Structure formats: structure tokens, C-alpha cells
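CO-FOLDING WORKSHEET

Operator: S.A.
Ligand of interest: zinc ion
Run index: 385
Mode: holo prediction, single chain
Checklist:
[x] sequence pasted
[x] SMILES validated
[ ] output reviewed
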Amino acid sequence: MNCFTCQNESVSELGVAGIRPGSVTSDSWTCRLAAVIHQCPRCGHLQKHHDKATLEAINEIYRTYAPHHLAQGNEQVVFPEGLSPRPRTWYTLEKCLPSLPANGRLLDVGCGNGAVLKSAGALLKGWELHGYDLNDKHRDEVLRLPGVASFTSGSLKKLPHREYDLVVLWHTLEHIPSPLGPLAELRDLLKPGGFLLVQVPDVERTPFDMAVIDHTSHFSRRTLEILCRQAGFEVAMDGTPWIHNCLTLLLRKSTLPVPSSQTVDAITLAGGRAQFDWYNSTVRLFDESTREGEFAIFGAGMAGIALLTQLTRKPTLILDEDRQRDGSKLEGVTITPPDRATANLKVIMPFAASNAARIAAKVRAAVPVAATWQFIIPAASATNP
Ligand SMILES: [Zn+2]
Ligand SMILES: [Zn+2]
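OUTPUT RECEIVED:
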């Protein structure tokens, strides 16, 4: 078992994420499979090396993948300070605009039902857009989007070399076991001077990401850069602050030699272990705090859905500010905007401590009934103050 990022020849097993088997799929369904976490003793990268049965189950997830089914196929909305809410892809592409040429060719690898391509069609007016995915499930839908010139499925080898000015890997890299080879292939598709835009979940700010069964890599800012440098890229723009729980890097082909090995970093090793321990003790805290009384989970994201497989009792509601999810159900529990929830609830906040406290304060200020709620906030940790 080689480490997915630094290629070290062994990884160690940390154990199951959570207090019982159970996880979440990246298309927002609960899953009965246990999320077993491994860590590289050299670079500290957290990763999953699935057995054959789990890999088969994951292939089935991809075959029937329903992107954003809780929100009628619409992607996540972000709520940036001082700006109106907007799709996450839109917000990120807007941030990249100053670095990109006025026109060019964009390839979205793992395009799904076209979240990136939709935003690119509106923001990158002079660009020609191309979609790629494993199968043809969303082919027709993607080809109907404005600006989309082609859709390819199957092997990456079908795509032309040195053709693209921007290749996008949007919440895709974390799904690829052994991502180094595919990343190097994508490098060959770029024109000289072309960019690769990568966004993945940030395990340091969201250790809950470990519960996503089909995420095989759980990147920190450092391990993501180790991988990208090994594949021959360097950072052109660091978008780590853009999205509160994601890492975003705009990369270009590196002119530096590919580093042959990485040295052990004791801080990263301890950090990865701390995220794993934090996740497990947080799930335990939530379970123990909800043994009696009515309670709700805040947020129908990955963390909230994973908790449905971990807690002994079922919540009365799942609260979510994204109105596209209003009325959808998970495990029979209805998703409701906070302002329509009942009084005197315990409210589980599955976020890093400071984010959880910030969101709780925002909800208290905006929603009168929240004054009667008891928010359950996780403990702070070194990587998650
Ligand atoms: Zn490693
Ligand atoms: Zn993902």
C-alpha cells in the first residue's frame, strides 16, 4: 500500500472514523460501510485504502450518482461576507478571473451534471467549454449547457494533449485512488502556460470529511501541495481562505524539478492523528448529549448526514439555511430552515469549534426561536481552534 501523495511504501491504519460502522456517500446518502482511515508515516496524509467489497460498493455509488439530490440537482450555495449568496463554483471562478486570459479552452474533469460548466458559461464568456466524466449519465444535460462544445467519457487518454488553457478538478481529486498518475496525465493536456484549478475538502477545517466513504484522500493544505508538486505543478494562486471548509489551488506547470522525496514532518503527523481523534470524540460528545430530549442536527451537509449513522437516537429535524433543501428528507428526517423549527431543541453543530460558535451566534441573531435552543458545540483543538 503506497501513500497516495508522497508514494511512501507503507501506510498505517488509524481505525474506523466514528463510534460505529456507518458513513456518508459524497452524493449525500447515508451508507452502512465503515470508514477506515490510514495515515502515511512519512508525509502524514490521511487516506482510505478500501478492500474489494468496499470498492465494489463505491462503483455502485458512482453508477447511480445523484449530484445534489437534496437540492433538486443544484450545487452548494456559499454565503460570503458582504455579498449575496452564490453557487460555490461561481464564487471560486470569480476569484480566479484576474489570473485567467480573456478567452481559451476549459476542460472540467469529473464534470457531473455541470456545476462548474454552468458558472463558467456565464463568467468566462469568450471560452470554449469541454466536459469529461467516467460515464455518459449526464452527457445530454451537459451538452445542452451554454458554451459547452464537447463531452467525453471513459479513458482520460481520449483527450488531446496541449489543448487546454484551464483544466478543472472540482471535488474530484479526493475520489481518485493513486491520484499521482492521473494528475500527471492532466498536466500533459495543458497548453504551455495553462492552469489547473483544484478544489477539495480541507480535512483540517472539516475532519468530518473522513466519514465520506468514497473520499479516498483527506487533504490538508500541505499534503495537497506535496501531491501537486510531485505531479509537476506549482501554486499560482492560493485560494485556501475562499471557502471555509475547502482547499482551492490554482496551479501551473512547474519549471522546477519534481521533488524526489519529502521529509517527515512531525507536526503534520500529529495533526492528522489529532483530526482523527477529534472526529471520534466529537461524535461521542454528540451521541452522549442527545440521549434524551428533542434535538436537531444543523446542516444537511456531509457531516450532518454521517451523524445520522452514528447517533443512538434520531433527530426531530435537520436544520439547513439553504432553502433549496427545504422539505427534502434523509432517513425519514425532514430538512427545515431554522426559522420554521420548534422551540426548546438541542442543536448539534457539526463544525470546527470556532465555525460552530460563529454560525450559532449568527442563527441566534437572525431567528427568534433560536433563543430557546441549546447549541452543542465541539471542543476546540490545535488545528481547529
Ligand atoms: Zn505520504
Ligand atoms: Zn468529493
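REVIEW:
The radius of gyration is 21 Å.
The CA atoms of residues 201 and 246 lie 4 Å apart.
[x] output reviewed
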